[in-house]
Amino acid sequence: MREDRRENLPSELPKGVLFDWDNTLVDTWPVIHDAMNATLAAMGHPLWTLADTRQRVRRALREAFPDMFGDRWEEARDVFYDRFREIHLERLEVCSGAESLLKLFQERGVYLGVVSNKSGDHLRREAEYLGWEGYFSRLVGATDAEKDKPALDPVLMALKPGELAPGRNIWFVGDTKIDMECAHIANCIPVLVAESRADPADFGDFMPHYQFSSLEKVADLVSRL
Questions:
Q1: Which residues on adjacent β-strands are paired with residue 189?
Q2: Architecture of domain 6-27+94-224
Q3: Is 159 in contact with 112 (CB distance < 8 Å)?
Q4: Contact 179, 192 (CB under 8 A)
Q5: What mean pLDDT comes out for the span 82-99?
Q6: What is the 3-state composition of the chain as percent helix, strand, coil, each rounded to the nearest 5?
Q7: What is the Cα–Cα distance from 19 to 25, expressed in whole angstroms?
Q8: What is the pTM (predicted TM-score) of this model?
Q9: Which of 99, 111, 140, 189 would be 16's cystine partner, CB 3.0–4.6 Å?
Q10: Distance of alpha carbon 69 from alpha carbon 31, whole angstroms
Q11: CATH tag for 29-87 (out of 1.10.150, 1.10.600, 1.20.120, 3.30.750)
Q12: Best CA proximity match to 171, nearest among 104, 120, 118, 218
């Protein structure tokens, strides 16, 4: 639902908010694209366009790479992470309105966590680099839990420090179908941040409950709750 449908918007703050990381709070598509093409080149595969990367990169690496590279997936993983580590901090960009929204939630006493399919070590290194560790009670990345997003496991791990359970008083904020799928599986409120309206043909049973075109629009709502 778009942010201009005011009658459908929430009337009270959530107890907690779980954020996706990549391209929800920080813009990392150029970094992911660079590392992905370095991997494809090393493995003898055709390179992708940036549009290809945006479309195809969804699952955690440990789930996606075996399908892509078969028995050589661990070799491909090492190439990807070597290149990623070379460039991810120097090219890290904050999404517009991200820190203001985090500060606003923190000021309102809302519990904050992250559930990402980025390597947990890289995720926490980026948060530390940005000085954002203080906003989040737990940052959960790929391989931190037994199963990765969209499974329930990382959601439970992210909420545990606050002794919170997944439910309708928890928002899950992200930019892709897999984030909405994770929210539905956990019975949290799925909140999509994307300029293009969610298409039922793409999202299927995992439509967002609320949709906003930007983090600034989310902040505008939160400031009024």
A1: 171
A2: 3-Layer(aba) Sandwich (3.40)
A3: no
A4: yes
A5: 90
A6: 50, 15, 35
A7: 8
A8: 0.82
A9: 111
A10: 20
A11: 1.10.150
A12: 218
**DSSP 8-state secondary structure symbol assigned to residue 20:** -
- Using pLDDT thresholds of 50, 70 and 90, give the confidence band for residue 8: confident
DSSP character string of 84-152: HHHHTTTT-EEPTTHHHHHHHHHHTT-EEEEEEEEEHHHHHHHHHHHT-GGG-SEEEEETTSSS-TTSS
- Token couple for 189: 């409120």
The reported pLDDT for the residue numbered 10 is 84
For the stretch 205-219, pLDDT in tens is 999 999 999 999 999
Domain ranges in the chain are 6-27+94-224, 29-87
- Give the count of alpha carbons within 13 A of 124, CB side only: 9
- Which residues, in sequence order, are bridge partners of residue 202? none
